[in-house]
Amino acid sequence: MTHRIMSCSEALAEALLEEMERDDSVFIIGEDIRAHDGIFGQFRGLPKRFPARVIDTPISETCIVGAGLGAALTGMRPLVDMHFADFFTTAMDEIVNQTAKIRYMFGGQAKVPMVIWAPDGGGLRAGAHHSQSLESWFVHTPGLKVVVPSEPADVKGLMKSAIRDDDPVIFFQHKKLFAQTGHVPQEEYLIPIGKGEIKREGAHITLITYSRMTYLCLEAADLLAQEDIEAEVIDLRTLKPLDFDIISRSVKKTYNALVVHEACLTGGFGAEIAARIGEELFDYLDAPVARIGAKDVPVPFSPVMEDFVLPQVADIVESVRKILNRQ
Amino acid sequence: MTHRIMSCSEALAEALLEEMERDDSVFIIGEDIRAHDGIFGQFRGLPKRFPARVIDTPISETCIVGAGLGAALTGMRPLVDMHFADFFTTAMDEIVNQTAKIRYMFGGQAKVPMVIWAPDGGGLRAGAHHSQSLESWFVHTPGLKVVVPSEPADVKGLMKSAIRDDDPVIFFQHKKLFAQTGHVPQEEYLIPIGKGEIKREGAHITLITYSRMTYLCLEAADLLAQEDIEAEVIDLRTLKPLDFDIISRSVKKTYNALVVHEACLTGGFGAEIAARIGEELFDYLDAPVARIGAKDVPVPFSPVMEDFVLPQVADIVESVRKILNRQ
Amino acid sequence: MKTSKKEKLSLLEKMLMVRAFEEKAGELFQQNLIPGFIHLSIGEEASSVGTCSVLRPDDYVASTHRGHGHLIAKGADPQLMFAELFGKATGYCKGKGGSMHIADFSLGILGANGVVGGGFPIIVGAGLSIKLRNTDQIGVVFFGDGAANRGTFHEAANMAAIWKLPVIFVCENNLYASTTPVAYSLAGGSVAARASAYGIPGHITDGNDILEVRKIVARAVKRAREGKGPSIVENRTYRYRGHFEGDPQKYRSKQEVESFRKKHDPIEKFKRILKKEGTLSDRRYEDMREKVALKIEEAVRSAQEAPLPDPEEALDDLFVNP
Amino acid sequence: MKTSKKEKLSLLEKMLMVRAFEEKAGELFQQNLIPGFIHLSIGEEASSVGTCSVLRPDDYVASTHRGHGHLIAKGADPQLMFAELFGKATGYCKGKGGSMHIADFSLGILGANGVVGGGFPIIVGAGLSIKLRNTDQIGVVFFGDGAANRGTFHEAANMAAIWKLPVIFVCENNLYASTTPVAYSLAGGSVAARASAYGIPGHITDGNDILEVRKIVARAVKRAREGKGPSIVENRTYRYRGHFEGDPQKYRSKQEVESFRKKHDPIEKFKRILKKEGTLSDRRYEDMREKVALKIEEAVRSAQEAPLPDPEEALDDLFVNP
Ligand SMILES: Cc1ncc(C[n+]2csc(CCOP(=O)(O)OP(=O)(O)O)c2C)c(N)n1
Ligand SMILES: Cc1ncc(C[n+]2csc(CCOP(=O)(O)OP(=O)(O)O)c2C)c(N)n1
Ligand SMILES: [Mg+2]
Ligand SMILES: [Mg+2]
After folding, report:
1. Global pTM?
2. Which of C37, C248, C309 comes nearest B302 by C-beta?
3. Which of B11, C34, C75, D13 sits CB 3.0–4.6 Å from C29 for a disulfide?
4. Contact residues on chain D for B67, CB-CB shorter than 8 A
5. D96 at interface of A, judged by CB pairs closer than 8 A
6. Which secondary structure element, helix H or strand E, spans residue D132, and what is its range?
7. Contact C128 A73 (CB under 8 A)
8. For the segment A287-306, what is each residue's pLDDT rounded down to a tens digit?
9. What are phi and psi of D115, to 5 degrees?
10. Nearest CA to C146 among C61, C66, C46?
11. Which homologous superfamily is C5-303 in?
């Protein structure tokens, strides 16, 4: 395969370009997309290329999501742009009570091929209303798939799969990763929803993570390697359906696990992973499964406080040391 | 103390009667309260007793919650009736981005003495839009307290504390428990937010639960006692702040733990408890912490399917047997 | 709009079918044969039947918690509906939905809805889809006077208006939202009056007069199909039963209900007209009633005989690709 | 409404203060001294200052993401605001809020808001609280043309109307919501026209004419204080800067911006009037500008010197009783 270097933002736009060319029923709907190709430039070139299928809306998130649903039920394949993941709050009924439940409640009559795309995460000094990581809510909502890629190649391959999927997919991209670059295959490819990937192999501990924290875990693993600690880094890429096999195989090898996410700790997805590892891999564990998440407060504005609240590489390194010293 | 027998519904109404008499700033706001004293009769006598302070609204949950917030910020103590917990979905922005964050974002300038009261849970053959248990979302939202009582005495004592609390409290009551009766002290009393209670003592396993599942756990404990298995039943009563001490003391005694809730399993609050027990009590565990929750689908209508999806006494008994046989 | 004799008789029959279905459902509920709770639309048949009578089979309808009438009017099969109400495997939704969650996508029925106001955004999406697919379908969302106060109404009306979507907002103003009188909860006097806020037409009908409902909705349908955009139609009507079966109804008097039933019953009203103009004979009417009653009896019987789902079927139908 | 000479000069000074604050903030942002992102209201000063000039100190204001002007107009201290913009411990919110989340509860400022349309329900609650507490305060919610399309607008307007709450909905229609022209997104032609849907008064002002804004808002204030209920006031204005600092602004031309600045600048307009009627001399104006500039410089300087919070302070202020 030939590869190119691309940003996550470009990877997203390329995935959508290919899928929109392939299938006339795919369209994009959301606020402020056309003028600047999305507020992060994430839909570069698409408004011009598909003038009728990139649709600007009023500020009406509730109806935007519901309209996506209505369109999905009647033959289209919408990608709904949530603008910021923080505004999921304004459309929870449409997502949780309608989108997620409709197929089931109606006994399988309907399908909802919709992607809800949401830029999430902190670190941009954007304050409590523009910095959240809300994936836990959706993992706890039967009927949704939840995708949280970190690198450009995964963004592209997973978005193409999400668009083709006949079920609703919540697709998170971390705002701080839009400019993150990486290799992306030249040829067409898909990455299946529901498969994690080992981004670094290691024998001593399994770091289970996703989205931006993947990069922090990789950095931490580099630092730990200098102390002869080899950390295996699993990027889950999808939270639901969860690739528990990849976790299981790794923990059976390393006997130690640390889950790292940016969402606040209590009730975060790390709890689910830790609980499942505890349940299913109890006898393989040399130490308790540890968790790192943001501290349990809203994301504060002031950089010194925001950095303190969000997980940092040093927190990961320290936690790994603590886990392994315990033995 | 003298006691009386009362239902959860009566206990709620009595708590509110006392607090509304005590403090003029307490008021109740929500849909369809006045005509029938609340759609479950849960505010019996209050509309008549406090005609100006029990307020019917249009069907506008988003604004009802936000109005509660605005009133709380300006000197009042609202109890907002969500009608059904399922409709939290329509007011998540007001709860999560406004109510929960306002004090923090504004550096402690404001306080939000508001109770959001929500009847939740399934088992009433009410279908997927009127049967959910959504507490996990709020436990994962810094800035909220979450209360989930099971018995009448706790409903009363916790509601009185919630009304007096200067922070926002999400107060769940299970719909199937309104008619549940129990002893309630004659004298005035409060039950502190953040304290669990052992509802049955036992030496072999700790059942950690809350809301309606407390009764199922107690039933299961009765059955297990016939097999000489003594289960300790902890009713958490409050999920946030969490009384981890009571869990810790019990697990250090029983070496085994099972968490039971009605919300669906994946990403439910049981994950948080199991993860924390794993982290903090690893060396005390004889077996993995197990979890029981509803199966990961929307709550179906047909009774045979609903009963299959929601946790039953038999599931608890069986799970306990499995955990203890393992040893 | 012209309505032929045959059409008139078929309208009457449909209204009788809705009423018979609902009365039967109420009876079965009383006998504890229907689990959960149900909301009946008895008294509102002119609105559901009148509206759907001017729709095409491929037009979309988004319904409400009080949806039996809309479903039957759009062509749904009472037997599959009863089976669903009983929680049977043969029901419209295999027993997963129940009264508040019935759909028939093959008839363009996008579903009843347990969330008041939940249909507004969905119909906007259907309208947008029609536009993108370039067909001449239209979409109708039914909603109550209470639902008109939800934010979804506003967002949907605005969006449908700016894009001139082929949708119609059909309000069934039955004077109450559960226990709450419309006069208390609805500012501005009427739902139709809100149309001007979006620069679209708003009409009030005598919602108990099926020919008037038909005429006004047909106008909105024409407008929508011609690409001229959405309308609001407010059918003023009344429900005779409680908000849900078992409702203590302290918010209104028995006399009020009786007076509406006596003076404004949509079926009686239409019957009188048809008789007066000679379209309907007593004999014909009795035949019609019997036919309807038979059909309902038969639907109930076969639904009752149908099997319950296996409990494990509760795990099916969540995803297309699990 | 009469406005005295002294009041007029103070209005002008306030507008100058808002503009000086915002221009300085823009400059500091350019220099990377303000983290995150900021939304400036330069060009919209007549709306914020005119509106707040007819409010009492104990009246409530709910503001927006573009809130600096509202805050200063309601009496907020620029130094505490700059300190907040810098993320300093001495800021209004101890650095936890930033530009989009500043409040001063001692001045009735219930907060800027990062969620568009988040203020509507809050002001309804404040209005209800006023009514329950039986005071004669009022509440104002500022919002943009874009925010008028959120469901919260509708629910709040309806609720305020049925209860005749003492609140005013002050729209700052600056022709764009981020990149989206109001002509594209807002059905019905104006925000004020939506008032009739709720049976309440709606007014459009030349939002760049501070005396007109004052007059119209004062009328709404009087109505609210007398218990006659809410109003909508739509101030038609324009923002000169991008939606946020750094906005590429491909959605409008430089000429458009320049033309508004030349023809409709609220400060220039008011200055001309004051000069013409002899209220303002060149000398006096220069003094005023200097005074304002000095105050802003001083505010920036002391905010810059203020300490950053300790990182651990991030854990404070979540609960009253943790
Ligand atoms: C969002 C939401 N809020 C509240 C309810 C509870 N509820 C069900 S029906 C109803 C009244 C609806 O009134 P209306 O819209 O007038 O319809 P009608 O019942 O009169 O047909 C209410 C409050 C609900 N199902 N959904
Ligand atoms: C609920 C919500 N949706 C979207 C955004 C992103 N956003 C911030 S400001 C803005 C435009 C607001 O336009 P308008 O209400 O006209 O106010 P203006 O910025 O023009 O003052 C948008 C879309 C947001 N903050 N909140
Ligand atoms: Mg009604
Ligand atoms: Mg604007």
Report:
1. 0.98
2. C309
3. C34
4. 121-122, 124-125, 128, 156, 159
5. yes
6. helix D119-133
7. no
8. 999 999 999 999 999 999 99
9. -100, 120
10. C66
11. Thiamin diphosphate (ThDP)-binding fold, Pyr/PP domains (3.40.50.970)
